[in-house]
Design brief:
Two copies of one chain form a homodimer. The first copy, chain A, is of the alpha/beta class. Chain A has ten helices and 14 strands. In chain A, the strands form three sheets. A six-stranded mixed β-sheet of chain A has the order 1-9-14-13-10-11, with helices on both faces. The longest helix of chain A is centred in the middle third of the chain and has 20 residues, at 199-218.
Chain lengths: 331, 331
């Protein structure tokens, strides 16, 4: 990296367009006024959760390409991954679009990994336009990671709710749009949390570590950013993250917001808020991107967070390794 | 991309070192004389298949860093993925090494995706040294994708055998070693094969498509390369791939070898040969890399192939989308 774990983009690759799709529960909250496609029901006209998830991702990708004024043939590469085993949502979507495809996986921080790689590929001259996208679906995630929905299992109060939604970004080597100016690649951090219902606590140290590394590498203070936007720490995880950063002498309280914390009006059993790869992707691709385009925000540090466990690793008694990547977006 | 789907590396990032680890069945074949660590038994002193797989990957990574004359702190980024759900082999290994980590997934073509991205990051000035690695384990793959071993399920004759092995490469922005000169990013190809026991047939069109695209983008003929090394098509898949390329007017028969076809002395039920992310990774990182270093080979086109299915997608009646990425390595 050019400095510590941080890369700097001298050619200022721009986010030419973004598009987001979200389910009905999500659209009842802040996303409702900003997404490009609001689903009437979370099956999206398909007969399986997995196909619905795929259709959301594909829709977000196609809308973002449309807004960027090009089709799939105008994009050099598609960077995508998702929460399902073997990232089938991304792979099957790649098949439909026909774009050259690089599969990535970083759990719920897939969006920031995708944006970072897209920026490197565009800035380095390897791609003219790169599409970075991800998504998640509550029901496919519950089935795979937790329990069949039909069981009606009670959720503990520290749990989060996987967002049904997708976000897609078209990053361009040149042109209009908020620029990706630098980014910090995360290290895997594990404080020994093994409670799979408490992802916020597991991921908070990874977010704090990447945020602190970013400040150190760039020499920037928290106040440099209008907004430090973490991925899906939720309410509890956000407090832990802010405390961990504060302990190291930096205060992000005034300008920190967490996508998981704001995505729902928490009225039922969403408890700590939203999670899932689609959470930070949809929030950034709609509400936040809109503010960046209209001047409501000028400098955003996007820090999506991911828990890199599997049902097998948890079943074998392992703790939860987590990661967070930071992407600086400046209008 | 700079031309079609192909990127060219003007700064000639070099493969500074490579290391491979393989299981006993694999070491009975061509790998035996070339791997850095040959396992006496495939549990590698661990109590689960998954931990054994992880230990293989970690061992390969650490040996490659040692051979490159640096530790994990000398590498800027670790690019890795594997066949297990949520790429836990890569993620948990990333936790142990502490390197900044970018998770990737491209099934059995993960090695070529990793090398391609590592070359872009080094060539573009984003990393001084990047580690790209992957691996697989017969028993963890069987358990996850097929049947518990204890069932003793009969294998059909078109089946391949997942390689127990791992390969790791240290790519450096400058210095000694075979250079990565260009690479072609694959598109997802699906000819409608849905037989999960016939991966070779499913993947052959993806390999052929990427090889043809590479020739078209670079203007090179098959004879430019001493060796065109496909991933894990196996015996049947290799024949199909050569036929598909030949139909388009290019003949790769004289200089084509498939890692899956050569990795085993096929004497039992390996049938079509080897497969798995560790197959092409271990063959390239040992036998082939050795030949590149010693002058036995000068120009190799490495085309690892991947089948992007999951048990869920197959269970829902989907066909198998496949991909192949090509990396040109020149001594």
């Amino acid at each position: 990296m050019q400095k510590g774990n941080t890369v700097f983009f001298k050619n200022r690759p721009a986010i030419a367009a973004a598009a987001a799709v979200a389910g009905p529960k999500e659209c009842a909250g802040v996303l409702g006024d900003f997404v490009d496609a609001a689903l009437g029901d979370d099956m999206f006209g398909e007969n399986t959760f997995e196909r619905a998830e795929r259709k959301m991702l594909l829709t977000a990708v196609r809308l973002s390409l449309q807004k960027a004024g090009c089709g799939a043939e105008g994009a050099d590469v598609f960077l995508s991954g998702d929460l399902l085993n073997q990232i089938i949502t991304a792979s099957f979507s790649a098949r439909e679009t026909g774009m050259p495809f690089l599969g990535i996986y970083s759990a719920c921080s897939t969006m920031s990994e995708g944006l970072l790689l897209a920026a490197m590929l565009c800035d380095g001259g390897y791609a003219g336009r790169a599409v970075a996208a991800t998504g998640s679906h509550f029901s496919s995630a519950e089935r795979q990671y937790r329990y069949p929905l039909e069981l009606g299992t009670t959720r503990p109060p520290q749990a989060q709710w996987t967002v049904t939604g997708a976000g897609s970004f078209v990053v361009a080597a040149r042109g209009e749009g908020p620029a990706i100016t630098c980014g910090t690649v995360g290290r895997v951090t594990d404080y020994g949390v093994s409670d799979v219902n408490n992802m916020g606590a597991a991921m908070a140290p990874a977010a704090a570590s990447t945020i602190l590394q970013h400040f150190q590498d760039t020499g920037r203070a928290p106040a440099y950013y209008d907004l430090i936007l973490t991925g899906d720490l939720g309410a509890l995880g956000s407090r832990l993250c802010k405390d961990l950063v504060w302990e190291k002498g930096k205060d992000i309280e005034p300008n920190h917001v967490d996508c998981g914390e704001i995505v729902y009006k928490v009225i039922e059993d969403e408890f700590q808020g939203g999670s899932g790869a689609g959470c930070s992707a949809a929030v950034l691709a709609s509400y936040i991107y809109d503010k960046l385009r209209r001047g409501g925000l000028r400098r955003v540090l996007f820090v999506a967070t991911g828990a890199l466990l599997s049902t097998v690793s948890s079943g074998q008694g392992e703790t939860i390794p987590c990661i967070a990547h930071a992407v600086a977006i400046e209008a």
